Amino acid sequence: MSRYHTIYRDHPEDYDALVRAEDCDGNLRAHLHASLGDLSARPVLELGVGTGRVTRWLLQRGARVRGYELSPAMVDLARERLAAEGHDVTELTVGDAYAGDFGEAWAAAALAGWVFGHAVSWHPDDWTDRVRRALHAMRRAVVPGGRVVIIETLGTGHETPFVAPALAPYFALLASEGFSRTALRTDYAFETAAAAERSSRFFFGDAMGDRVRDAGWSRVPECTGVWTTTR
């Protein structure tokens, strides 16, 4: 089991504190809003709900989100936080992004944020089949003209987009499946440098924690890629 499995299973609140600090300038949120258009009362499929970061943005736009998250602890926290804000969380549930069938032509859009990149290391023998199957299922779920959106990191601690060698084949797969990429700056902003170091060390490991500490960053550079295609 990877350290990320353990984080998602046992430390959802610490993870939520980290991701709430990301996209401090609102670039990702603005890009999604512009790309997806009016979602009022429209159904949206989200894979990898996590603690509800993107889910919240979708619900605030009036979307009806059917969301799946593999970690029960993460989805429980998402439901708790979003329900406290007055959102309908009845369609957020525990589920596998690689299940392969999410229905046919019902969603205005389908999104998966920071999900499939894990497959490269978690499922080294068959990650290509798993990811391709999930992408095809997402495409089938959206109505003609609907958007399919994949969000992944393009480099924590990087001021310009950086493709980790391990993720290059995955990103090539997205391109081969007809996705086009937009790169954004989505920096983390923490109240103090100590908080930045603590969260970075918790999730990204000691090397990144040391780098954040040595640089004295309270704002940690981050680049994010948004891959989009239309059914």
Question: Can you tell me about this structure?
Answer:
The protein is an alpha/beta fold and 231 residues long. Helices cover 42% and strands 24% of the residues. It has helices at 3-10, 12-20, 27-36, 53-60, 72-84, 119-122, 127-141, 168-176, 193-204, 206-215, and strands spanning 43-47, 64-69, 92-94, 107-113, 142-156, 180-185, 188-189, 219-220, 222-230. Strands 3-2-1-4-5-9-6 form a seven-stranded mixed beta sheet, with helices on both faces. Helix 9 (193-204) runs antiparallel to helix 10. The longest helix has 15 residues, at 127-141. The chain is globular and about 50 Å long. The protein starts with a helix and ends with a strand. The model has no long low-confidence stretch (mean pLDDT 96).
In short:
The protein has 231 residues and is α/β, with parallel strands linked by helices. It has helices spanning 3-10, 12-20, 27-36, 53-60, 72-84, 119-122, 127-141, 168-176, 193-204, 206-215, and strands at 43-47, 64-69, 92-94, 107-113, 142-156, 180-185, 188-189, 219-220, 222-230. The chain contains ten helices and nine strands.
